[in-house]
Structure formats: C-alpha cells, structure tokens
Write a structure and sequence with these properties.
heterotrimer; A mainly alpha (about 200); B mainly alpha (about 220); C mainly alpha (about 900); B: mainly alpha; two-stranded antiparallel sheet; 2 strands; about 75% helix; about 0% strand; C: about 900 residues; mainly alpha; 6-stranded parallel beta sheet; two-stranded antiparallel ribbon
Amino acid sequence: MRIAALVLAVLTGVIVLVGYFIPVLNPIQTIFLTWAIILAGTAALVGVFNLILVHGTKISQREKGRIYSAILLICLFAAFFFGLVLGPDHPGMRLLVNAVIVPVEASLMAVLAVTLLYASIRLLRRRANLMSVLFIATALLMMIGSATLPFGEVGALNNFLRPWFQHVLALGGARGILIGVALGTLTTGLRVLIGADRPYGGK
Amino acid sequence: MSPDLITGMVAFLFTLMILSYLIGDNPLFRVAVYIFVGVSAGYVAAVSIRQVLWPDLLQPLYQGFLFGMSLRQAVLAVPFFLSGLLLMKAWPPLSRLGMPAMGLLVGAGAAAAVGGAVTGTLFPQVNATIAAFDITGVTSPESLLNAGLVLAGVITTLVYFHFGARTRADGSVRRFGLIEIIAFLGSVFLAITLGVLFAGVYSAALTALIERLHFFGTFFGFG
Amino acid sequence: MAEPIICPVCGESNPADMEFCKNCQSRLLPLTGPLKDEDGPIHPGQIPTKKVTAELEPILPEWLREARKQARQSAEDEPTITGGDKQTKPLTQTPDLLAGLADQNKQGDEDDETPDWLRSITGAPAKKKKNEQDSSQVKWVELGHNEEPGKDVPGSESAGLPWMRGGESAPEKDELTEWFKQAASPAAPSGENLTFTKTEAPAPVQPDRSTPTTPVSSAGEVPVGTKDIQPYERESVKDLTGSALSSDIEIPDWIKKLDAETPSAGQHTESGKDAPSPAFSSDTDIADWIKKLDSGTPLVGQQSESSKETSTPALSSDKDIADWFKKLDSETPPPGQQPSSSKETPSPATMLPDVPDWLKSFDEAAGAGQSGTESGEALPDWLKTAGPSVQETPAGPAPAEPAIVQSQPIPEKNLPLSELPDWVSSLTPIEPRAAEPREPAVPAFQMEAPATSPAEPVSSVSALPTEPPAASPAGPVPAASAFTEIPESSDDVDAIFASMKIPDWLADITPSQPSPEEGLPPAAQAEEPIEPAELPSWVQAMRPVESAMRDSTAGPLDSRLEERGALAGLQGVLPAIPGATAATSKPKSHSIKLDATDQQQAHAALLEQILSAETAPVPMKADSVPRSQRVLRWALSALLIIILGGVIFGKTQIFPLPAQVPNETIAAIQAVEAIPADAPVLVAFDYEPATIGEMEASGASLMDHLLLLKHPRLALISTSPTGAALAERFMASTLAQRSYQSGAQYVDLGYLPGGLAGVFDFSQNPTAVMPLSADSAEVWNTQVMQGVTHLSDFAAVIVLTDSVESGRVWIEQTELARGNAPLIILSSAQAGPMFVPYVDSGQVKGMIAGLNGAAGAEQANGGLPGFVRRYWDAYSLGLLLVVVVMFLGGLWNLWLGIQDRRVHEAG
C-alpha cells in the first residue's frame, strides 16, 4: 500500500503540476483532479464516520459524557437522514441550518469578542516586551481608526494613520508572510512530489 | 406557528445556550455544542453524498451500468475503487487500505499548491514589490518612501524567518549580527501586521456579537 | 591440555572429555551455552539447562542488574563462607530474578521467622522476638503435650523444637543448614572452617574459637549431629542414610549419650549450659525413642516436605536408606554455603555398609511411604500429582541416583493410619505398606513426652528447612549443573570421606517408576492428560535456569516441579501442599514482606506513581481559574452586552459612517460598475456561519449595487459544505429586495470539494467539474449560464470569504484561467489585511473588508441595504469601549506584571 500510495501521489502530482505549464496535458490533469475532488468528498464521509465511531465507542463503553455523545449521534443521524432524503437545498434543511448551525457558530464568534478582550488585557502582564506593546498599540490604533465618534471622525487617525499602517507597514509584513508561505508551500509540495514527505501514511 | 418563528425560537435558544459560556462552562453550553456538531456532521455527510458523490461518481456509474459505459464513466471506476479504500480509513484495522487514495489526494493538492503558489503568489508579489519602484509609476516621493517601507517590510519579514545560525565559541547559538538586526526589524513589521490582523479579528468578533444582539432585538421586536 | 574435571557431586577427578562422572555418573559440565539440541524443543518436566544470558544484561533496568549482581556476588561468596564468619547468612534461595533481594535478609527484618535459637547458633545476636511464646506453643503442639520445654531448662529456648516444625520458614532452614555446613567443614583447608569435634564448639556459639568449647548448648549438640549429617547434604540421597549413622564414622559422644540422656529442648539453646546432647549411638546402641521414631520421623518430615518427596529418588524403595535422611540430604545445605554446594560433598553414606536398625526403621517408614506412592492408594492429590514427575525424568544424562533407585525394590510397609495419632495421620499422606512388620508407628516424642530433645535432632532434621533434592527425578541434570556453581568444600568432604566406600546396595538403587496413573490424581487419571507442550529452545533459554537449579535445593515449597499444564517444567511455581502442616501444627506465619532493598522499593514506588499518574483523571484546568479572573470576565461580558445591546435596541444612529472610503473599496465598486450588464458573474461563498453577520453586511451593499446596476446572471459556488445554504440565505434574505430566483437569475452550483485542487480543476473546466446544480439540475445549458464554458467567460469573479486561505486559493488557482475577469474580494475584517498585497499587486481588482470597508460601499449604493448603518453605532461604540478597556487594562496588567517580576526576583 505504501508503494501504491507513493506512486499515485507522485504520478498525480507530476501530471497536475506539469499541466499548469503544458496545456496539452490538461485533459489528463483534469481527470486526476476530478478524481481528487471525488475523493475529497469521500474524505468528508470518512471524517463523519470517524466521529460516529468515536462517540459510539464512548456510549458503548459508558464513558463520561456519553449523554452528550448520544445527543450528538442522534442529531447527526437525523440531519444526515433528512439531508439525504430531502436534499441539502430543501427549505427544511435550510431552516435547520438557520436554526442551529448559524446561531451556534455566530454565538461562538460573539463569545470570542469577550475572550479576546480579556486575553489582550492580560497580555502585558504575561509578556511585557517591546513586541507585545507594539502589537497592542497597533491593534488599538487600528480599532480607533476604524471607528467614528459621535461628532465625526478624527481626520488624521481615520484618514491617514490607519490607512498608512494598513497599506504600508502591514502590507510589507503581510507580503513577506505571503511570500514566506508561498516558499514554504513550494518546498513542502516539492518534497511531497518527489516522495520525500509522505503525509498520506507512507512515512 | 410559522417555520420562521420556529426557526427564530430555536436559534434564540441556541444563542442563549452558547452565550451562557460567558458565565462559565455549563451543561447548556455543552448540549448546544454537541447538537451543533452532530447537525453539522450530518449535514456535511448529506451534502457530500448528494452534491458530490452521487452526481459525480455514483450516478454516472449507475447510468453506465444501466445503459452502457462510456469512457468517461468507465474511468470513474478508479475513483469508485479508491473511494472504497478511503472509507476504510474510518476503521483502524483497515486504515492502511486508504493510503493510495490519500496519496492521490495529497499529490493533487501538493501540485496545485505548488503551481498556485508560484503563479499566484510568488511571482506576482515579488513583481509587485519590485514594480513599486518603477519610475514610471512613481507619482511622488511619498509613494517611493512607502514602496521602500514595503520592500523593507518584505525583506525583513522574510529574514526574520531565516533561522540559520552558528555556534559561537562560548557555546551560544546566534544568528549573524546583520541578520539579527534585520530580523529585529522584521519582528517590528510582524508585530504591526499582527496587530492589524488582531484588530480585524476583533472587529469580526465584535460584529458577530452585534449581529447576535441585533438578532435578539429582532426576535423581541426591537430590531 | 585440558584440566581434569572435578565431579561437583562426589569430587572425583575425571578426564576433561568425560561428560559424566565415572564415579557417580553425575553430569560434570552443565548444559550451559548452546543447548545440546539448540533447535530442539525441551519437554515439560525437563529442567532447563543453563543459558548464558549475560549479554542481555545491559538491557535490564539498573535496579535489576544490581539485584542480579548482588545475587551473583552472594553466590560467589557463599561457598567461601566458613564457620562463624557469616553469622547470619541469608539463605533463602530465591528465584533468580529475586536473587538479589536475598541480601535483604541481612538487615534482620523484624518479621523474620528465624527463631532466636537459630540466631544464636549462627552467632547472630539473639533478638527478642515477639512471637517467642508462639514458637514455643508450636513446639508444644507438635510434641503433643502442654509442657513448655523452655520451662524445663531455664534459659533455654526451643532449640530443637523448631526443627520439628514442618513449616519452617526458609530463612530458618537456610541458617540452620548454613550452620550445618560450617559444622561440617572440619577438613576444610581454611582455618576459618570449624571442625566439630567433641571438644570444639561451633563458632557461631563460641565467639572465641581458640577456646575449647563446651558443647552444652544446642549449638553444641547440633554440630555433632551435623557432622554426620552434613556429608549427606553434599551427597545424593542414597548416600545420606548410610553415612549418617554408620558405624564407620566416629560417633560423637553426645550421640552415644543420647541413649541415656534425653535432654529437653531447652538445652538446645545458646545458654551455654550443659545440656545433654542426644547421643546417637552406634548401630548397636539405639535409643528406644529413636526406634519409636522410626515411623514417626518420616511423617514429621513430611510435614514440611512437599510433594516432590514422592518424586525424588530418595523416596524410592531403598530400605537401607531413611527417607527423611534422603530428604535431609538435599534439604539442608550447609551453612555459609549455597545449598546446592552441599551436594558436592561425597556422601559417606555410600561407603557405609552398616546402617543402624533405627535408621532402617526410618527407611522402612519412608519406603512404606514410597510404596504408598507407588500403589497410588489413598494418596492425596498433591502426592499423586507429584508422581508423574518421576516418569517424566528427562531422557538426557542423569545422575546415577534415579537409576539406582529404580533398580531397588521398594519395600512395602503397611502402617495403618489408625494407629497413628490424628495429627500424625494427617501428616501421612501415604499409606504405608511395609514388607515386614515394624514397630508401632508412634512418634517417639509422643511416647516419651518430655524427651523431646532426643527427637529433636531427628525431627529437626526431618523438619529442617529443606532444600529440594538435587537428584529429584525431574531435575537430575540441573542438580548436577547446580553443583558446578559452587564447587567449594567438595575437597573438604573428600578429605573427610576419602576412606568411605559406596556400598553395593547403593549402586543398584534405581528410582522407582510409578505408573503415571498412580501419580495422577483421580481426576487427572480419568481425563486425558494435557499433552506436554514442546518448548522451543528460545523459551528454554528464557526459563529461569539459575532459579530452577537453586530451587532444587531451596526448600520443600520451592522444589515442586510442575509436570503438566501451562506451568509444566517450571519448578517452585506453586506451593506443593498448602496447608499440609496446618492440620497438625500451628500454621507457620510466613513473612509476606518482600525482600527488597530501599532502592528497589523506591523504584517500585516510582513505577507505581507513574502508572497511577497515567490512569488518574486530570482535573480540568477551567475549574482552577481564579475567581477574580472569572469576575473580570463577567464584568467585561456585562459591559459589552449591556452597552451594545442598549445601542442596538435603541436603534441609535449617533455615530456617522466614515467619510473616508478605502481605496480597495473604491476599486471594488469600480470593478463592479465595469461589469457588463446581464453578464455572467461567478460568486463564491466561502465563509462560515460564524461570520455571517459581518459577511452579509460587508457583501450586501456591493452585491446589491451589482444587481441593481447590472442585473448579472449569477453562478453561486462554495468550497464550504455549508456555503450553499449560506448562499441561498444571502440571496433570499440579504438581497431579497432584488428578487433573484434560483434557476432564473442565478444558479447554485453547490459544494465544490477538494480545496485548492477543486478550485483549480473548476477554473480549468467548470462545466465538467460542476455539471449539475445543487439541486441536481443541468446548469450550463440553461439561460443563466448561457455562453459560459470557461472561467474566463465570467464577467467577474466575486469571492466572499472570511478566511485568508480560501481567498488565497481563489486568487492563486484562478490566476491563469480567469483571463480578464476581475477578481473582487468581499472579506471579513479578520482576513482583509492579508488581501491587501493582492490588491496592491493588481491580482484582486477590489476588496471590501469588514464593516469599515462596507460603509463606503453602502454609501455608494445609496445606503442600501443598510446593514452597515444598522450596526455602525454599536460597532463604533464597541470599538471605542474596547480600546479604552484594553488600554487601561493593559496598563494595569503591565504594572501588575512588573510587580510580579519584582516579587519573583526578590523572592
């Protein structure tokens, strides 16, 4: 299996990569990419099955919190059943999304507002160095610059300082990060393509 | 009772249950999270089957089985077989069977990432950094200064991620002096960038809180 | 030239090429190193050969290596221990793995069962034992009368009586046998060896060796007997009996006096008083009590003897050899020496033709026991199970003992159990079948109640801490191997018994071979015996060779050789007869304390701690949050919710929208306005429900502007599974004013899996990758998607995303296939800063990030649809509030942090 995985990974990678620059290979490239899309859809199912196994095990072994696991599995099977029968685009499924998924995720994000504030306050107690101060100061500056006052804007802050920070200083840093990420992606991808790295399980 | 009202009530309950975490961890919060995970997983599974596997794989194979296989349909036997192997990964004793399918996924992803990074980020961003100094494009000394700062930010940030070092006589491991200085400047740029990002993240979180509060107002007729 | 090999058993010098002793037929070389048949399996019942595993030692834990080292050290030292040098030599023949723990005994555990008299014998200072009274009581029970021996002789302790205990603890046994060894080394070249003569007391009792001793104490008694007995210990069982009481050997005076004097048990103490020694007379002068002891002694001996006795050759039918003496042979190693080494001493018994009658009676009793074993009648289970071990004697080279015993007819003696007292009969698991009438099988000590002392030497011998006979049928080879480990003192014994000859009758002794059915318990006979497993050689190598060999001399409870079942071939795994002695005597309270050094106990404690830490549930850290922090969190939550909620519920519009519109927003508006009317536009909804409020507010104005101005045909797609639902929500609610209908003005392509590979594939061939809509309808040949076959056919690509990664995927993967179609990013504020470089590079034509960016777009769209305005007051006020709190809180915590560091540095 390791050899098969390695061969498939290298073969697929080379064909897809070469297809970027040699249009003749596009049909073959598309075949492999279509296979990858299908497998990605299957991978989502694998994740769901794994979730079922984990919580099913917790229930069968009567572990702590098995009630929650039972609730999870009930909701999972119900959503899966109705989603499979009715279809995800069914109004009923949209109601399910709007009633459960959206409020829960949005509320979790709202909780983050308090948590981040609390964490930023305590940051300087834990790490009171130049970078922390600079980080907090920049954040404060950007937030002040993003808001307006009841009587209007603080011109220099809203119209100059904040854009300058974001489009000059932060641009340099962000671009450096993006280029660094691209270089890292390039290195890692090439290692995968030559078989040096085998994150698919071939060590 | 209209479906929208039911949806609103359920959403209101779930919002309350999640926001109760601000008081502390409690069963209501846990129940809400577990329900959310279950519904999301079931929904994702249904979407994967209904919108991916069925139209792209199973239906063509089924039709080909009924009405004769075309070449395109016959080729789908390969992802069908690989999908079967990939499903084995959910069962630990047979998880090794999923390695070839994962290999194909990783290979395709790695190639796409390499191609996209080169054509979509590396070359364009380097080119953009250089182009800022194009005399024909420079409209003012201020823009030239800004371009210089951007270039400095890019270089110093990249240098910051250079971790090559040598061992000194006293046993300490340090980077070169020049690299150290540039890396310090890079850390300044990074701190500013991350501060900007943090402000954005907090703005997003604050907006989410506002949206939830607005939902409360709407639900109770204040919105 | 190879050196001659000294037989470890008889001391005979043999040529180097000899494998077995030409004298005693014992194995000369242990089966060490490569196995004789390396690949051949061994059979259960076969004593494992010694395997050199020294190369494996480095992988052992340090404490185990140390323990083994101590074991080896003690094994090397013990043979050289002489006389009184080692006062209290730990003697327990522990298994190999625990060999190093034996030294723990040196520390004199309070729980040690070694009686004081034994301590005094070995020279160790007598300790006041808590259970001293109990010890006497045990003696009393065995003697069958209530008289306290210690009362008879003041100052004396139960010297001899503990010998009679069947369940003597191992330390006691070993100390005593060590003392025997000391006493039996008169001919040792070392001056430290004590010679037990009539006038010389053993060193343990007489600190000053130069001074002629007055053998009045028990220590003075026993050595004399020991002198006779000790050689037996070094010889095979068949040698024991004859030598013990042979007339050829000088009979000490105390034995001669034994006939007339019957000292009490109290005389066997270290009190130093003139306690009359039990005088073993010559073959002509045998005290009546000894004669009476004839049948009783073996029984007593059986109290402490395990079932191995039935499997030993000593229990075979040698009528001239007392069984208990055979047992004694292997059960009583000399003091200061490895028990196994005792067998290296050539047995003078083999050269003693004359056996006293009283000893013959012993023999007959034992023979009766053996015959009982053979008959299989009335055999207890433990005894029957021991029987097959004789048959399972390995076919390999074995010492001569088994063969000799086999050739000898087994005398039978019927000893009715009814004649025995209850406690004796309970001790007699065998049904005696004497071939000739014998004296009543009544213990002498029962007949002569006060005269316990005379019986003591005998009973003590039988009840002494015994070592498994080296010549046990199941383990003759290892016994011989064991001898090779401790060759000391064999020369000494040679010197003593050089003139002795092996009687002919001994040469013909062969071990009895009871049938398997006889040895098996009834249940086992009825059933098909478990087929002995063939153990591969590597398993053999893993077996505890050292322990197995030592166990052969360790003690009665350790010498049982498992013959069947999963433990077949192992020795000393299970106690042979648990509770066999409990019926007649007070159960011996064995120390259950593990002999372990402090370091080993520390290691064990550490291991236990580690294991417990692995399984212990880890408390949630969330519960350990200080209350002050929780209060702070509650305060912040309340502050935000109350203020923002008040603003939202009040529908205030105090804070104006920013007049300054970001450049990227302007670019986005321009790009949208540049899209041709009624053109196809691809819209990717790549955000999660978490940011739905911000994303709808950020994207609504520009999308509304687009729909309002250009009436584009939209194709919705998402790389998130929930994206399709969010897209439908966006179109149905956020842009409800535009009344776009699915299938008419837009199509929902649904979920595009595969991440960047999927986006790249879609960019290369969208019609093939997403042929159907989310509701499984054909889309590319519909009116909405008319004329669209490639990505570049779209008039624009608009990506609504809250993630840097998903936005970067769309930017990178559509870079080549997008053509002239502009890419517009509608982003969350958290991802906006990372898209600025792409906007700056021109890859992204325009971007709206967060509410701040959307404010300009909404203003450009005439304030529609108004989401930004709806949120703006709360948003601005919230930001200002957060800035204030963060600033003040940051300063406060900075000061606290400085204080903490000062305290930390000061402390």
